[in-house]
Each structure stands twice: as structure tokens, then as C-alpha cells.
Amino acid sequence: MPSSPPQSASAASPLADVTASDAALRRFLHGLPGVDAVGLEARAAALGTRSIKTTAKAYAIDLAISMIDLTTLEGADTPGKVRALSAKGVTPDPTDRDTPPVAALCVYPDMVAEARAAVAGSGVKVASVATAFPAGRAALPVKLADTRDAVAAGADEIDMVIDRGAFLAGRYLEVYEQIRAVRDVCGTARLKVIFETGELSTYDNIRRVSWLAMLAGADFVKTSTGKVAVNATPANTLLLMEAVRDFRRETGRQVGVKPAGGIRTSKDAIKYLVMVNETLGADWLSARWFRFGASSLLNDLLMQRQKLRTGYYSGPDYVTVD
To answer: Are 307 and 273 in contact (CB under 8 A)?
Structure first.
């Protein structure tokens, strides 16, 4: 059964007064420690040099497959494409039934019912982007209607986008209240909040928006939509990890992390898993708390998995082209 929606951190005693007013929220967000950009990037790069071999690599590949939100978010999406992608998510490698299924299918709201029917009984979740994805530029009633439609169609998870213009203009309480409103409409569906980190200009802004979203009740913080030039990077994902770690220390509530966009190879995915293990620990090493937003990553993981199993590569024709 889906978990109950989380309380916002304003209901938790350590941060009870933070969201009482726009001024209080601004003081809190601007009072967070500044980000050492050089140190952040150096640590992210160092974690990416760890060597993972043999059985550990096989374990990491299966774990990465189980953490994928297999995604199609194109204007040309059709019911047939969604059904085919759903079948691939449920049974990624028909020649090896030990291959784990993906975590979720991520689609537009009008495709949720199709995906829901296609994955029925498999355990694979259905996620839906909402709130005027990818720009997030719509009136709040429109965003809430978008979310309601997705939930009513059977979405287990909602991936919402923040209003980056409002955030960059310093209207923090407005962004907080929009996230809270969407969180309320989600009911038992889990809420992933997308920041579009490539548009936020500074690491300090990424840290601030991470805390803002968690204060508002986000179940996951997510880097990006995959629709801009700069999406997930090791450095901006490490910053999100540090934020959720510190938030749990402060409030006792655990929040997930989802890097999305530009993660295409097994090598890259394993680097992110090393980062999770080193920064957050085993508590986050599951699909409940860490996801990859990806479309092409699964193919490379399957080819690498087959190489470990058989000793040779079958090449790109071994997997479907999405």
C-alpha cells in the first residue's frame, strides 16, 4: 500500500517557525552554509574514480536497473509506445528472467492509464510529470488540475516542476506554498520535486531550493527535467545528497534523490551509486530512496549485464531501441 503523505517540516519542532512568513523563510534559506564549489566538484570527481569490479559490479548493475524511472516524455508518445516501454520495464531482458524490473514508468498525465494497465500486477510503479512540465509556467489551479488528473488515472508518483522564475526572483514562500498545494493534491502518491538545476545559476541556490522543497513535504528532490542543456551532474547530485542527509539529521525525515537527464552509461550509473553509498549510506541504496531518471541508460546496463553473464557483448541490436 502507498505510504501516508509526509508532514511538512513546518509541523516538525526543529523547524517549526521557518515557514511562518516570507521573511522567516528567507532568513533561514540565506542562513544555510555557503557551498564550497571547488570542494564540492573535487569530492564528486574523486568519488567517480572508485573502481568497482566483478561481483560488486554485477550487484551494482542490477541495483541500478531496479532504480530506473524508465521515461518517455515526447510530444509524439502514443499508447503503443507506452505499452512497449512498459513491457520493457517489467521484463527488461526476456532472455534472462533474473533481470530485475525497473522502479517505475514515467509518462505524461494523459498516458498514465495506459501505463497503469500495462504494468498491472508487476510491482512497477507509474510516475507522471505534472504542473505544466517542463517549464512550470502555469497558474496554480492549472498545475493542481494537472496533478489531480494524473493521480485519478492511477499515478503512484508525481514529478512536479517548480516555478524557477519565482524562485530566482526571491519569492520563496510562493514556491513553498505551491509545493505544499501539490503535495496535498497528491494524497498517497509520492511527490518528486524537480528543480531544473541547470537554470538555478549557483550551487547556493540549489542548496536553498533543496531545503525549501523538503520543508514543503517533498518525498524526493530531483535535479532536472532532461529538457535543458545542463541536467544531472555528479556535483549537483552530490549537493542534493548532502541536503537530504542534513535534513534527516535535523528533522528525522528521510527524503529521496533523483538525478535525471544525461545519465546514459553503466559506468556513470555506478559512479552515482558509489556517491550514494559514501555520502548517504545503505539507508538510501534502494529504489524507495534513489532513482535514475533515464531512457537510454537501461540499454547500456543490459548490455553490460549480459557481458558479465556470458563473457561477450551482443551489441546494440541485443536491446530494443526506444
So the answer is: no
Cα separation of 262 and 229, whole Å? Answer: 9
User: Taking a C-beta distance cutoff of 8 angstroms, is the pair 319, 303 a contact?
Assistant: yes
Residue 12: pLDDT band (50, 70, 90) is: very low
Q: Which of 40-54, 120-134, 200-214, 237-251 has the lowest mean pLDDT?
A: 40-54
- Going across the sheet that includes 292-294, the strands are 256-258, 220-222, 190-194, 157-161, 125-130, 104-107, 68-71, 292-294
Q: Where are the beta strands (DSSP E) in the chain?
A: 68-71, 104-107, 125-130, 157-161, 190-194, 220-222, 256-258, 292-294
135-180 pLDDT, tens digit each: 999 999 999 999 999 999 999 999 999 999 999 999 999 999 999 9
pLDDT band at 16 (very low <50, low <70, confident <90, very high): confident
- The residue among 130, 89, 154, 301 whose CA lies nearest residue 222 is 130
How far is it, in rounded angstroms, from Cα 45 to Cα 13?
A: 37
Dihedral of the CA atoms 238, 294, 211, 9 (nearest 10)? -130
Q: Which residues are catalytic?
A: 159, 222, 258
